[in-house]
Amino acid sequence: MKTLSLGAAVLALIGAAGCTNAAIAHGTDAQGSGIAIGGNMTRTLDQDGDLSLIGGNMDLRGRVGGDVSLVGGNIDLDLQIGGELSVAGGNMEADGSIGEGASIAGGDIQWRADVAEDLEIAGGDLTIDAAIGGDLEAASGEMVVTRGSHIRGNAEIAAAEFEMDGQIDGTLEAAAAFIQMGGEVGGEAWLMADPHEGRRGWRAEIDEDGARAGSTNGLVEISGEFGDVLHVCARRVNFLRNASVAGPVHVWADSEPEIAAAASLGPVSFEARDGRDCDDIFDDLDRR
User: Which of 90, 168, 214, 240 gets the most CB atoms within 10 Å of its CB?
Assistant: First the structure.
């Protein structure tokens, strides 16, 4: 990915805006590149060049043939973008498609735009409901990857709570305080739920299988399908009835994993965590 850093993008926009602001700022679409600094923006676009905007809230529709760089407040996008997308903003909703990769930083994010290459995204509450042609790197508070999502590369996730219901063709590395793993993972998976200090009173719920008694802080709950080796480190690990793991399962936890009778797992090994941090345990392993 040739994504321009957001800081560099801002400087480039400010430096170039003086001579090109007029046509774009008044809503006139350009067939070449467009750069603008302004207030709130509502645009329907149809242009072949790049587009760079700095402003307040943004509502953008239509087509841009090149790269798009945005720095703004709350952002609502429904764009067909031929190149890359780079965004720094507040709360965000994104639909449409990105022809290359995307680099996104915002508040609460609803991401529904398909990305042909890699997606790097960080936000508050984050929902991904899209096809990602490359790798996914994501960081958020509460994160959901929906059932309709498909990541064709690898995924690296850092969140407070992570719910996975989609499909990942490659490997998965996920770190959170509470992980719900449904969906499918084709490659090797590393799941880490180190309990967050001060959050021991997270909601206590019990599902129909009785799988969630007690706090969810430091819990990994698995009901998905894994096509390779699965490594899990947490306070507690539960395999529900739909869980399926083709390869070996390695668990580090405060107690042995709870495994539903209908779960289909490869050979399971267990080692007591003994107060160790999960990242230290994983760092000591020889990852292939």
Answer: 168
Spatial CB neighbours of 263, under 8 Å, sequence gap ≥ 6: 239, 240, 241, 242, 243, 244
Domain residue extents for the chain: 1-122, 125-288
Q: Which residue in the block uniquely carries the two structure tokens 């080796």?
A: 229
Q: What is the pLDDT of residues 18-44, one digit of tens each?
A: 333 323 433 444 445 567 888 999 999
Cβ(120)–Cβ(3) under 8 Å? yes
Contact by Cβ (8 Å): 115, 131 = yes
- In terms of Cβ atoms closer than 10 Å to its own Cβ (0-12, 13-18, 19+), residue 252 is buried
User: If we measure between CA atoms, which residue out of 183, 200, 202 comes closest to residue 254?
Assistant: 200
- Among candidate residues 137, 104, 105, the one with its CA nearest the CA of residue 118: 137
Residues 84-135: pLDDT tens digits?
Answer: 999 999 999 999 999 999 999 999 999 999 999 999 999 999 999 999 999 9
pLDDT over 90 (residue 4) = no
Question: Cα(154)–Cα(177) distance, rounded to whole angstroms?
Answer: 21
pTM listed for this prediction: 0.84
Residue that has been written with the tokens 């006139």 in this structure = 28
Q: Which residues contact 91 (CB under 8 A, 6 or more apart)?
A: 74, 75, 106, 107, 108, 109
